[in-house]
Amino acid sequence: MKHWINQLRQKASVTAPLFITEGTRQPLWTPRQYDTLAEEGYQKNIVVYRCVSLIARGVASVPWHLYRDDTRLEDHPLLKLLQHPNPQQSLSCFMEAMTSYLLLAGNVYIEAVIPQSEPLELYLLRPDRVRIIPGVTGIPEAFEYTLGGRKMRIPVDMLNGKSRILHIKSFNPLNDWYGMSPIEAAAHAIDQHNAVASHNLSLLQNGGRPSGALQFRPGQNGETLSEEQRQNLRHELREAVEGTHNSGRTLIMEGDFEWKEMGLSPKDLDFIEGKYLSAREIAQVYGVPPMLVGVPGDSTFSNYKEARYHLWEDTILPYLEMMKGELNQWLMPFYGKGLYLTYDTDSIPALAPKREVLWGKIEKASFLTINEKRSLVGYPPIPNGDRLE
């Protein structure tokens, strides 16, 4: 025991003790409520839904390969695990859900079922059900999963940080344990976009009529409406004009009345342009070209094809790189040395222009042999290919 403690002290960062405060070894709550972020930002906002879907389905469409040194393996237990992570999900569904959790919560938790020495199945855990228990070395001591009042604690090896749980998180400048959701950065734009949509729906449900007041002009003798008459008038107005089923209905009333509009019109509030502006801001947070989320008037990209290329180059590929690094660091030790996972960019249609430019440059390179050119584009050598053209 004493030897183990000494090893921990030697491996720990000199700043690790500062992470441990009052309440050590207790689960830390996430800084924001995941269910609120998911409901308001994803389920009730079409721009966030579109951005998350574009990125997540893009990541899920890319095939993965396993290599030992420089040799691609066609048959390996890890490949079988990835193709069928668990009985409920295929690889594409698993990758889509994993990316969506990262884009909504800023955190992803993957549990490996390890009956013996190698993982048998992989499961995604809902981020709001997982709590991190800080460790004395600056890495988690354990992960606590809570569901229906029951708790399960999954330990972490304090010497090497290995665990049956893989935690992938985005950068958070104000929290050492949890990632930051992109929805937090786009919160104001999402609220504005949702407010405009709610206003337009309320206006439509009222037959497109703005808020206002019915002004009664007193007669020659100064008569005014009694309280009973006001209540009856309100009731008649509701029955006659409120709701979409009364849209365009003519109202006939006795007396000297005049309608005074109280609210600003959508044109006065510039709702339409404000809605497009908030949609652009949400798309920028997620790294999605506004053209791909249906925002008109955006001339940053000359066409849809170019916008898709930039989505892959600037957003989806960096996410794939993050996942590749995390999966390699977590899974490879279970299967031995010399193995590494990577994804196949040649199968991505949106990146075809980039490949065409690269292949064109290789083809024109007079200082390369035929086999050197073939090697650069992923083809095997041929006889008599070690000569210049």
Summarize the structure.
The protein is of the alpha+beta class.
Integer average pLDDT: 79
Q: In angstroms, what is the radius of gyration?
A: 30 Å
Q: What's the number of domains?
A: 3
Determine the strand fraction and express it as a percent band. Answer: 15-25%
- Report strand order across the widest sheet: 2-1-11
Low-confidence stretches: none
**Approximate shape:** flat
Euclidean distance between termini CA atoms? 68 Å
Structural class per helix/strand content? alpha+beta
Reported for the largest beta sheet, the result is:
3 strands, antiparallel
The helix content is: 40-55%
Number of helices: 13
Element pattern in H and E: HHHEEHHEEEEEEHHEHEHHHEHH
Number of strands: 11
Architecture overview:
This protein is of the alpha+beta class and 389 residues long. The protein has three domains: 2-182, no CATH class; 212-262; 349-389, no CATH class. It is built from 13 helices and eleven strands. It has a three-stranded antiparallel beta sheet with strand order 2-1-11. A three-stranded antiparallel beta sheet has the order 4-3-8. α3 packs across α11. The protein is flat, with a radius of gyration of 30 Å. The N and C termini lie far apart (68 Å).
Keywords:
3-stranded antiparallel sheet, 389 residues, flat, alpha+beta
SSE layout and pairing:
Blueprint: H1 2-11, H2 34-43, H3 46-60, E1 64-68, E2 71-73, H4 77-83, H5 91-105, E3 107-113, E4 121-125, E5 130-134, E6 140-147, E7 150-155, E8 165-169, H6 182-185, H7 187-205, E9 212-216, H8 227-241, E10 257-261, H9 266-269, H10 271-286, H11 304-331, E11 339-343, H12 352-364, H13 370-376
Antiparallel strand pairs: 1-2, 1-11, 3-4, 3-8, 5-6, 6-7, 9-10
Helix pairs in contact: 3-5, 3-10, 3-11, 7-10
